[in-house]
Each structure stands twice: as C-alpha cells, then as structure tokens.
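Fold it.
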Amino acid sequence: MRTGTWIEACAADAIEAEDVIRFDFEDRTYAIYRTENGDYYATDGYCTHEKIHLSNGLVMGSVIECPKHNGRFDIPTGKAKRAPVCVDLKTYPVKVEAGKVYIQA
C-alpha cells in the first residue's frame, strides 16, 4: 500500500455518535471514531499498552478508553491521557464524501 492513499473505510452512518468501529485493511488494523459532535477520526486500532483492540472500548466525548486496563487516549491527537498507557496512538487523516468515510493511510 502506498502512503497517502485514501481508503474507503465504511459508510458514515455505520458509526453512531460517541462510538468506534474496527477497520482492517491489508496488514493494518484501525479504529474509526465518531465523536459526540459528529466529527470522524482514525487511529491505529490497538492500544499501545497491550494489543487490545480499541473498537471494544468506550468513547466519551473525544476520548477513547481501552477496554482492558482503562487507559485513555485523546481521539483527535492520539495523545495518551491516563495510565497505564504512556505511548501515543498514531492518527490518520479522515474525510467524509458522499456518505462514505475515507482514511488516508
């Protein structure tokens, strides 16, 4: 996969407000979010503390809480916000066109 390629991830209405879904593409796993104000974001799919998928986590405003040890990340920036996580998530550009969510990987 070339860096900078836009990839169709899902239908925009497939993600409720304050929710997250898993998206797998080639050898990568992503988490696609929709915050309470309707903005869409994408990060790497796994928590940086342990390899637990964030799609099973809890979205609260613009924060995702890991389902395993309750570490938290800021969704827009990927910044680690609460122990035990201390390594930030990688984030990816997102756009919504014609009712579809695309991520730039």
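Residues 1 and 92 are 15 Å apart (CA to CA).
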